[in-house]
Amino acid sequence: MTNANGVNAEAKRVALERGAAFDFEQLDFSGLSVEDSAAVRAAIARLENFYGYIPSAGLSFIIRNYRSLAAWGVLEEAWLDAYVHASHFDGHGLATIKAIFDACDRQRLHALRPVNQGLVRQHRYSLFRGCAGPSHTPGLSWTSSLDKAIWYAAKHAAYNDLADCAVYAATVSAEDIYCRLNHYDDEFIAYVPNVWRVEVPHVEFRLDRPR
Question: Taking the model in full, what pTM does it have?
Answer without folding.
Answer: 0.85
